Amino acid sequence: MNVLRLSVLVVIAAFWIAVPAMISAQSPQAPKAADTETIARGEAWFYQRCSLCHLGRIVKDEKFKPMGPSLSGLFKDASPTREADVREMIQTGTLSLSKPLRMPGFRYGLDSKQLDELIAYLKTL
User: Fold this and answer.
1) pLDDT tens digit sequence for 28-54
2) Distance in angstroms (rounded) separating the CA atoms of residues 92 and 32
3) Residues 100, 18 contacting (CB under 8 angstroms)
4) pLDDT digit string, tens, across residues 75-110
5) Per-residue buried b or exposed e for 58-96, using 16+ beta carbons within 10 Å of the residue's own CB
6) Domains and CATH numbers, the chain
7) Where are the alpha helices (DSSP H) in the chain?
8) At what angle do helices 112-122 and 33-45 cross, to 10 degrees?
């Protein structure tokens, strides 16, 4: 009888220890420091490479008008295909000669790690 009680207590104790660990593993957590650092580096790449065209600039009448489209919400509800398309656009740029404003490609200006950091930042916009 004592062995039965002891085994029941062991099972209850194991359950009591395991359940909180399983719940905490499933709950959403704050971004890791590496993710925050990645996003910060991506923001630096954005301001260095993209901000000239994709952020507002001052024109003669002192209105802010970006030359390129706003990238805010670019990845909102985006599929993996959308991310691949954006990566391709950043790497190759727009090659159409018919458009007056063309985006340069950054295939030689950003390596794959830098591109990943830039995409991580763009996802926060």
Assistant:
1) 555 555 589 999 999 999 999 988 888
2) 31
3) no
4) 888 888 989 999 998 998 887 666 666 888 899 999
5) eeeeeeeeeeeeebeebbeeeeeeeeeebeeebeeeeee
6) 31-122 (2.60.40.420)
7) 2-26, 33-45, 51-54, 80-92, 112-122
8) 100
Would you say the C-alpha torsion 102, 108, 114, 116 has a positive or negative sign? positive
d(CA 122, CA 75): 7
Tokens encoding 14? 């194991």
Residue pair 124/39 in contact (Cβ under 8 Å)? The answer is yes
Return the structure tokens found at 116. 């990943």
Provide the phi-psi class of 77: left if phi over 0, else alpha when psi is between -120 and 50, else beta: left
Residue count of the chain, please give it: 125
